Amino acid sequence: MAEAxxxxxxxxxxxxxTLGEEPAASILRHLGAEEVQQLGAAMAKMRDVTRDQVGSxxxxxxxxxxxxxxxxxxPESYLRKVLTSxxxxxxxxxxxxxxxxxxxxxxxxxxKWMDARAVAEMIRAEHPQIVAxxxxxxxxxQAAQVLSQFPVEEQSNIAMRVARLEEIxxxxxxxxxxxxxxxxxxxxxxxxxxVGGIRVAADIINLLDDKDGNVIEAIMTDDYELGEQIKDxxxxxxxxxxxxxxGIQTLMRxxxxxxxxxxxxxxxxxxxxxxxxxMSKRAAEILKDDxxxxxxxxxxxxxxAQKEILVIVQQLAEEGQIMIGGQGEQFx
Length: 332
What we know:
Layout: H1 8-19, H2 21-28, H3 33-45, H4 51-67, H5 75-87, H6 89-102, H7 107-111, H8 116-123, H9 128-136, H10 140-147, H11 152-164, H12 170-184, H13 198-206, H14 214-222, H15 224-233, H16 245-252, H17 257-264, H18 269-277, H19 281-294, H20 299-318, E1 324-326, E2 329-331
Helix pairs in contact: 1-2, 1-3, 1-4, 4-6, 5-6, 8-10, 9-11, 10-13, 11-13, 11-14, 13-15, 14-15, 17-19, 17-20
């Protein structure tokens, strides 16, 4: 079916086929008998629907939802959840990349919707400074996933370059966007923006699998003062004490009990008490019993559980659901 010849009914049928059986059924229940008959017939006739056709339909949906501010939803977030549920994270990212290319987003913006491994493969051959600038435009969570795809010996160099970034001239961003354009078919350039810096580098390193501190040590070997600044800005498990009670309660709703009990086994008493006081008395007692029942545990298991919680903390902070306090100031 050629995209240009697709009717509204055809495009609606493609959308329903894309969403899967249960979501499609939920939508059809709200339609009249004649509409259901038309859509059912169109769905039955569908053959060899291409990814480009699906991307076009989803792009139209995103534009439509974006125009409906009264819906009270964030369209990009909504569409990502729908696609992830239907196709999985990686395919959803690829679809979103195509959609945002069609909507005129910049190449750098398009990368934010792509799978981390795909981004890493795309920029792997670029100069470390270009890689650092691209990472600085991504969320800390995605940037960490991308950076983890690089050899360990390259990670410290890239992280150090992120920390040293300040304001990027518009001409430099134009050149960078042109590089991304070669891979994503995007031509619109970004304006100058404040990117990078100590905080961004620290957020990325926080989410790396760098328990031994090898990345920080390598940075300090090359630039001791810069490494110290990044180290001071790293978010560690003890910084949970800087989250207010409401934030702790929000965090607890996102953490599995098994992970929490393991993470608290080697935590300071102050952290344990902060967690306990933000739980119901019964829930706190159950958690304490669970911790006691574990007996001796491996330190590596505790560290892994704490890291899982830190990842959740970072995600909640980026979403604005909690605020992290540290080093005498607040940041999100």
